[in-house]
Amino acid sequence: MKLQGLFSALAAALLLTPSLAAPSAQPEPDASTLDARDPSIPAGAGRPFNAAARPHKPVDTKYFKEPGGDDALGHYDNRYYTGTQVGYEEHRNTLRYLIRAYLTVFREHNIETWIAHGTLLGWWWNGKIMPWDPDLDVQVSASTLVWLGKNMNMTFHDYVGRSPSGEEVHRRYLLDINPNSAERVRGDGMNVIDARFIDTSNGMFIDITGLSETNPGSQPGVWSCKNYHRYRTRDLYPMRETVFEGVPATVPYSFDKILIEEYSQKALTTTSFHGHKWIAEKKEWVADEQQQATMGRRKRSAEAIAPHVPRSIQVERSGTGLRNLKTLFT
Fold first, then answer.
1. Which domain range does residue 261 map to?
2. Residues 45-93 pLDDT 10s
3. For the whole model, what pTM was predicted?
4. pLDDT in tens, 112-131
5. What strands, in cross-sheet order, belong to the sheet with 136-141?
6. Is residue 81 part of a domain?
7. Strands in 78-183 per DSSP E
8. From CA 217, how far away is CA 177, in angstroms rounded?
9. What pLDDT, in 10s, does the model give residues 206-245?
10. Cα–Cα distance for residue pair 144/155, rounded to 1 Å
11. To the nearest whole number, what is the mean pLDDT of the chain?
12. Structural domain tally of the chain?
């Protein structure tokens, strides 16, 4: 009997062992309860992963910021924008003071720079800024950018000039070099502008872009910016000395070829554009409203309606040539 009782006890113990080894099933913890109980647990822990529920927010790599992306607000620096866009005349005066100050500062420091893009087109017509141009464009070499970053970054420059009415004008400008300017490829396209010369009174600016030989092995002598504008060394150099908005300036050697490649031949002959008409007698772009007001008081000459050929590239004759520009062909 004792032996039979011992076997019975052993059998009972063996039957209980699996039950003791396997813990009873616990209910899944409620993730929302965990979140509320322990703030160290990330929100949503325990829930199935849903990529669509968590869209990736791209990193903003843009250095220069503007208050808006349209043609109007996209041409002000966000740091100095007053919240109000300047009017037509103030816009023209601001750009005029900007380029005069910029060219003067760079010449005083013996820094090579030249006017480009729409600013160069304005010079081609009459040595002035086109009145509808929202900003100004200049270029420098990539090596100049490096020097500017080391020696003149975040420097302020004071300008004293005269308004069209003769009043003394005081402006202060910031030269700001983009820290991404050393990167000579486009990348994500957010930093194609390498530097800016900014009017601290209203935020308007000059865009400064650098040129470099990005592929000297396969494309020697081809210079480009990060916005894919390309130039050959022989089209850039030797630079030409001229005058722009009344101060000494520099333009590329083959300025006409560069302009035609960028804007087409039509840009050099069209005499009505963006609400303005070219008045040959005045050598000025005049807003349509002004042009209409003067139309009845004068006869339209053949020169006014004929396709315009700037005198700077006409065959030299006595008395020709833009009077406010230095002779380009000597």
1. 73-269
2. 444 545 455 566 678 899 999 998 777 899 999 999 999 999 999 999 9
3. 0.72
4. 999 999 999 999 999 999 99
5. 114-115, 136-141, 205-211, 195-199, 168-177, 155-162
6. yes
7. 114-115, 136-141, 155-162, 168-177
8. 28
9. 999 999 998 888 899 999 999 899 999 999 999 999 999 9
10. 16
11. 80
12. 1
Residue 129 located in a structural domain: yes
Residue 328 lies in a domain: no
Residue 24 falls inside a structural domain: no
**310's tokens:** 């700037």
What's the confidence (pLDDT) of residue 308? Answer: 41
Q: How far is CA 103 from the centre of its chain?
A: 19
Of 113 and 187, more confident: 113
Instruction: Report the C-alpha gap between 231 and 258 in whole angstroms.
Output: 8
Residue type, 175: L
The distance of Cα 196 from the centroid of its chain, to the nearest Å, equals 8
Closest CA to 114 of 87, 80, 135, 141: 141
CATH of the domain at 156: 3.30.460
**206 vs 115: CA distance, rounded Å:** 10
Q: Which two tokens stand for residue 307?
A: 């396709």
The whole-angstrom separation of Cα 242 and Cα 127 is: 9
